[in-house]
């Protein structure tokens, strides 16, 4: 690029024009528009330049050019018909690093005048870097016909609202969205027909309508309990929420990390103890968001794995509430890792099934034949109460009674307990060991690897627990 297009603010800046004829006058007009502080030097001046001097627009120095005229000038134009003078101006200006333009002599220009489409404050400048001025002029003519006259007043109007809009929308993206809405609205046609008052009123209304901040819901997975398993995104959103809606499953250490002055709402959810109905929780999220609040709906594990995140998001979408979903480490992944049980292993399990022991509707029986197949791992959520049924069905459908089982209570938390047993003793062990919620059942050959791996590999978390693991064969 030979010339970098920049728009300069010449308001009251010192500019020198060497010359006093028509060419100097033409350049002078452009600088008067830009409110520059203009001095002209020439032995004589045309009448129009003299009038400008009388009006106080320019200062005339009746003299031949000499280098002192360049003192303290930012820009200089050589507009004489004398090549010698023009050359001198060019050389002297260059020596002093002053931008110079010798009219109609492009090699002697360190700046040039582009063709302009003027819709003040919108200005479009076109330059061919002096190579094809006629082509540049033709382009300008095309643009003149394409760009409507009302663009200038429209830009002035929106410019007068910029500070208010900036104050109202902190984020650039929100400001951009607002302006997109304005330019798609009838504000534009009102300016077009010259009704600036109506356009101004409409802009005020649009701004007022968005004054209430838009609410949003974050559906956040908090993982199985260890706060260090939170994702960075989960932590960020927990700390910017106005309201936190949480379940019992979310550990106290994690709840300690939510924004201090956020309102906390517990919606319960323990099997057989739903303190708030799911429908009411859904509605609560919508209501808070419609009040303009940032709502963090925090859930144990992953929101989309037995977390009812899907149901909540459906209701938010139906009510046109903005939301974000943050995945979390699901109990099967967290508990198995902290218990030293790989969910798949080339020697023992080629598949893993996530299963719930608790179905929404009665009669929604599980596919026991598929679940009883060998060489796979079952991670059973909410399976403690139904453990006698699970045990009986798996054995009845062909799974061996000696299949290894791990019952992981409070997985990944300080009080994690792993009870190792086998399938035909599952229910009895849950009873005698008095397993409490939350607990996950891992059924399959991989469960036996717990003995081998629990104190190695992932043991840094396990060995740091206050209570050692309780292993029951
Ligand atoms: C309603 S489900 C929620 C699952 C959760 N959305 C997830 O992805 O882990 C609750 C069940 O998850 C299992 N669970 C969740 N956290 C657990 C933990 N820390 N230790 C053991 N089991 C856990 C238990 O089976 C519990 O009954």
Automatic annotation (TrEMBL):
The active site is at 247 (proton acceptor), 269 (proton donor). The modification Phosphoserine is found at residue 128. NAD(+) binds at residues 22-23, 43-44. Keywords: Cobalamin biosynthesis, Lyase, Methyltransferase, Multifunctional enzyme, NAD, Oxidoreductase, Phosphoprotein, Porphyrin biosynthesis, S-adenosyl-L-methionine, Transferase. Residues 119-144 form the Siroheme synthase central domain. The keyword Transferase applies. One of its GO terms (molecular function) is precorrin-2 dehydrogenase activity. Pathway: Porphyrin-containing compound metabolism; siroheme biosynthesis; sirohydrochlorin from precorrin-2: step 1/1; Porphyrin-containing compound metabolism; siroheme biosynthesis; precorrin-2 from uroporphyrinogen III: step 1/1; Cofactor biosynthesis; adenosylcobalamin biosynthesis; precorrin-2 from uroporphyrinogen III: step 1/1; Porphyrin-containing compound metabolism; siroheme biosynthesis; siroheme from sirohydrochlorin: step 1/1. It catalyses: uroporphyrinogen III + 2 S-adenosyl-L-methionine = precorrin-2 + 2 S-adenosyl-L-homocysteine + H(+); precorrin-2 + NAD(+) = sirohydrochlorin + NADH + 2 H(+); siroheme + 2 H(+) = sirohydrochlorin + Fe(2+). It comes from the Bacteria. Gene3D superfamilies: Cobalt-precorrin-4 Transmethylase, Domain 1, Methyltransferase, Cobalt-precorrin-4 Transmethylase, Domain 2, NAD(P)-binding Rossmann-like Domain, Sirohaem synthase, dimerisation domain, Siroheme synthase, domain 2. GO terms for biological process: cobalamin biosynthetic process; methylation; siroheme biosynthetic process. Its EC number is 2.1.1.107, 1.3.1.76, 4.99.1.4. S-adenosyl-L-methionine binds at residues 224, 300-302, 305, 330-331, 382, 411. Residues 215-473 are annotated as: Uroporphyrinogen-III C-methyltransferase. The keyword NAD applies. Residues 217-427 form the Tetrapyrrole methylase domain. In the C-terminal section; belongs to the precorrin methyltransferase family. Belongs to the precorrin methyltransferase family. This is Siroheme synthase. It comes from Pseudoalteromonas holothuriae.
């Amino acid at each position: 690029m030979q010339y970098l297009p920049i728009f300069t603010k010449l308001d009251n800046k010192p500019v020198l024009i060497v010359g006093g004829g028509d060419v100097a006058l033409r350049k002078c007009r452009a600088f008067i528009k830009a409110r520059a502080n203009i001095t002209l030097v020439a032995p004589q001046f045309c009448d129009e330049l003299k009038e400008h001097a009388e009006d106080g627009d320019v200062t005339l120095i009746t003299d031949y050019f000499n280098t002192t005229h360049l003192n303290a000038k930012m820009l200089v134009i050589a507009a004489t018909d004398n090549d010698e003078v023009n050359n001198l101006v060019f050389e002297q200006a260059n020596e002093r690093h002053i931008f110079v333009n010798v009219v109609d002599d492009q090699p002697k220009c360190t700046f040039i005048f582009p063709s302009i489409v003027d819709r003040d404050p919108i200005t479009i400048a076109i330059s061919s870097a002096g190579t094809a001025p006629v082509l540049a002029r033709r382009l300008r003519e095309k643009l003149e016909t394409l760009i409507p006259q009302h663009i200038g007043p429209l830009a002035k109007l929106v410019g007068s609202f910029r500070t208010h809009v900036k104050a109202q929308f902190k984020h650039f993206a929100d400001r951009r969205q607002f302006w997109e809405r304005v330019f798609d609205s009838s504000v534009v046609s009102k300016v077009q027909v010259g009704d600036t008052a109506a356009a101004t009123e409409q802009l005020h209304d649009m701004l007022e309508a968005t004054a209430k901040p838009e609410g949003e819901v974050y559906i956040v997975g908090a993982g199985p309990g260890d706060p260090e398993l939170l994702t960075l995104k989960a932590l960020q959103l927990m700390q910017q929420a106005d309201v936190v809606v949480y379940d019992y499953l979310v550990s106290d250490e994690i709840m300690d990390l939510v924004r201090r002055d956020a309102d906390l709402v517990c919606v319960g959810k323990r099997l057989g103890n739903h303190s708030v109905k799911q429908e009411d929780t859904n509605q609560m999220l919508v209501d808070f968001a419609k009040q303009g609040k940032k709502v963090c709906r925090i859930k144990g594990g992953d929101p989309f794995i037995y977390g009812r995140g899907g149901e909540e998001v459906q209701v938010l979408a139906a009510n046109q509430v903005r939301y974000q979903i943050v995945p979390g480490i699901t109990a099967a992944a967290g508990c198995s890792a902290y218990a030293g049980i790989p969910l798949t292993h080339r020697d023992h399990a080629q598949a893993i099934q996530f299963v719930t022991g608790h179905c929404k509707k009665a009669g929604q029986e599980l596919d026991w034949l598929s679940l009883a197949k060998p060489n796979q791992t079952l991670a059973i959520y909410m399976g403690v109460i139904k453990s006698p049924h699970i045990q009986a069905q798996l054995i009845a459908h062909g799974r061996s009674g000696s299949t290894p089982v791990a019952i992981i209570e409070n997985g990944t938390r300080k009080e994690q307990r792993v009870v190792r047993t086998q399938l035909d003793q599952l229910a009895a062990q849950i009873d005698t060991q008095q397993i409490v919620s939350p607990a996950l059942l891992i059924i399959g050959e991989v469960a036996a690897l717990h003995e081998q791996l629990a104190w190695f590999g992932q043991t840094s978390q396990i060995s740091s627990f206050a209570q050692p693991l309780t292993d029951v064969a």
